[in-house]
Design a protein that fits this description.
Layout lengths: L1 E7 L2 E10 L1 H16 L4 E12 L1 H16 L3 E5 L3 H10 L6 E2 L1
Helix pairs in contact: 1-2
Length: 100
């Protein structure tokens, strides 16, 4: 799995590619929580090139959502297809994260 982040003011755009498992989730969580600590409150995840996400990856999104919401921000997602979309629907997280 690989990811890129782009920050503009209080907004961070995250693009994920491949499969997000626990090993990569730890690195991603640390990076994004540093962004929150640096004042970011708006996060957008682009899942168009993400093939799979496990529970640790979902935990990253929930952690970022909680921290962003505490500062008046939010997390949005786009590009969910296939297995990723199915996992979000099964866990009902598609109702938690605002689509874009």
């Amino acid at each position: 799995m690989s990811f890129t982040t782009k920050r503009s003011g209080q907004r961070v755009d995250i693009s994920l590619q491949g499969q997000l498992y626990v090993e990569e989730a730890t690195e991603l969580r640390e990076k994004l929580l540093r962004e929150v600590d640096g004042g970011a409150i708006l996060f957008h995840f682009d899942f168009a090139r993400l093939d799979y996400i496990d529970s640790a990856g979902l935990g990253v999104l929930i952690s970022v959502q909680k921290r962003a919401a505490a500062g008046g921000g939010q997390v949005t997602v786009s590009g969910m297809t296939g297995m990723v979309k199915e996992i979000f629907e099964l866990t009902r997280l598609d109702r938690v994260f605002a689509p874009r």
